[in-house]
Amino acid sequence: MEKKIRVLLFKPGLDGHWRGIMTVSKALSEAGMETIFFGFKTVEGVVEAAIQEDVDVIGFSCHSGAHLEWARELVRELEEKGVRDDFLLLIGGVFPEQDHEELRRIGMDGVFGPGTNTADIVRFIREKLESRVGEGGPTA
Fold first, then answer.
1. Which residues are registered as beta bridge partners of 9?
2. What is the dihedral of CA 5, 56, 85, 38, to 10 degrees?
3. In this structure, are residues 37 and 61 in contact, taking their beta carbons and an 8 Å threshold?
4. In whole angstroms, what is the distance from residue 117 CA to residue 96 CA?
5. What is the pTM of this model?
6. Secondary structure percentages of the chain, helix, strand, coil, to 5
7. Residue-wise pLDDT tens digits, 93-109
8. In the prediction, which pLDDT does 2 show?
9. Cβ of 91: how many Cβ atoms within 10 Å?
10. d(CA 30, CA 19)
11. Which element (helix H / strand E) includes 74?
């Protein structure tokens, strides 16, 4: 039996917009992925949940302007737990396009701004996970 791709999505802190992450969550579910919307959480709680839920992808949406710091904190927490390479990391939201490269340098695998086609996010996840695990890995 093939394992479905499991995705944990969250909003860091009290970042208040919803539309983008709910749209992405629905698109990933419709593409056959198992999505867990974890709501407004701390990075520490998200990392614990990702480990316990055995997810393949951790994604968050940010609108507060603190996207670089949240990304750094997520990567730092994963590295401290020794599990950074266990997850594909995604970020989406409203932030300056010039920050995309810095987000990738920090360690975010996928960076998606407003207006990104959800099919592109689905394709990105599948391609990245296939290249990481090869046959026998998660599918959707």
1. 37, 59
2. 160
3. no
4. 18
5. 0.90
6. 50, 25, 30
7. 888 999 999 999 999 99
8. 72
9. 27
10. 16
11. helix 67-81
48 exposure class (CB count in 10 Å sphere: 0-12, 13-18, 19+):
middle
Cα-based angle 127, 88, 27 (whole degrees, multiple of 5): 65
pLDDT in tens, 37-66: 887 778 999 999 999 999 999 999 988 888
Burial status of residue 36 (CB atoms within 10 A of its CB: 0-12, 13-18, 19 or more)? middle
Taking Cα atoms as reference points, which of 63, 64, 53, 75 lies closest to residue 8? 53
Please give the full DSSP string across 24-71, using - where no structure is assigned.
HHHHHHHTT-EEEEEEEE-HHHHHHHHHHHT-SEEEEEE-SS-HHHHH
Three-class DSSP category at 113: coil
What is the phi/psi pair of residue 61, to 5°? -115, 140
pLDDT of residue 81: 96
Cα–Cα distance between 86 and 73 in angstroms, integer?
16
